[in-house]
């Protein structure tokens, strides 16, 4: 495919806190590149302009660097195939979309969002999977030209074969066959001129000379669309490898609604990057019992992409704890341990900001551990009695906690001002005074009804730790609420 050797990439979207699943996929690509003497590239896929933010992009870069992953090309360091941020490549995609349309493989679709929603509702009511019905597929060239000239909003969709199936070989799943009637007429170019993920992904991988695409198994169903785009543009597709998703012990999908999934959560709790990478790397190698403690170089030496499991990677937090403890005890010198502790305490200015907020609230330094300790604890071990002094009923407390938790997710920029504004808005929406809303939050966040200022504390702890503490607090309060009749 290319004379440049093996080239792989990780291409996260900066639309939220970096997920451990991103580190899992990134580590596979990194080890694959090291195994083959190839290049590991970072690309930011920010075609979703409404949810992508510079803050989240910075968090992605910082999280992957914390993990110990190094890329040879990326938005922060440049490279020969840049830019490495899709929003900076916007003008690259449209000519390829027009090429597909001109060749008769794509068409302009003028369907309104309202029509598409009614179409999907009817399909769901009939028990059919929702997908585009081809309403604009056979418009005449004259009508299309006229409507485009009139400035009517439209998207560009790709045509899909009406018979047969797409057959391809996957590096993990082997030979795969997906019938074409299960594949939607994917939008390639949105009405605002931005490409969809699928179009930009294929164009970028080709122009960046990516030889192997390793990603999560949830993208397996998208391969037929991607293969078609490659064919429509006359390009050879890369080798596809779809890795089993990380799952909870009950085999359910790892999601932030059930368990902490943000890399920032694990950094805040004091996990060390070598242990997390060691834990994730064990999913990709075969070892004997007693060989679990492995550095990045040792993982690369044992890495065998030809012998991957399709069984699923179970995110066993107890095993991660065990590995993290072993790394701290067995791999860090006294000096290195002390350095790691200080670095961890000062992460995100946690120590500095905590001390600044404490200075006006103590009479002696010995009071600091009780006042600021919650900023550094892994678990508050909340007891239902911690909420006893709050005047609200258990039912009201639970309603507040269950309302606040998802509403805080709407905040794009996480800081004192945005947190306060959102909590005030929540109080207005719930028809309650702000002090009623914040009372259970003090306990949920700090373990006490009196502590450092709430909004500041939430900003210091970070989104992922706050999310988990609110979730655990809701579970604790739920034990006070009697069963529903």
From TrEMBL:
Domain Glutamyl/glutaminyl-tRNA synthetase class Ib catalytic: 6-322
'KMSKS' region (motif): residue ranges: 253-257
Record-level Gene Ontology MF annotations: ATP binding; glutamate-tRNA ligase activity; tRNA binding; zinc ion binding
PROSITE patterns to which the protein is assigned, alphabetical: AA_TRNA_LIGASE_I
Reaction(s) catalysed by this chain's protein: tRNA(Glu) + L-glutamate + ATP = L-glutamyl-tRNA(Glu) + AMP + diphosphate
Biological processes per GO annotation: glutamyl-tRNA aminoacylation
Keywords of the record: Aminoacyl-tRNA synthetase, ATP-binding, Cytoplasm, Ligase, Nucleotide-binding, Protein biosynthesis
Lineage top rank: taxon: Bacteria
Subcellular location: Cytoplasm
Pfam families reported for this sequence: Anticodon_2 (PF19269), tRNA-synt_1c (PF00749)
EC number: 6.1.1.17
Name of the top EC class for this enzyme: ligase
Protein family (similarity comment): Belongs to the class-I aminoacyl-tRNA synthetase family. Glutamate--tRNA ligase type 1 subfamily.
Protein name, per record: Glutamate--tRNA ligase
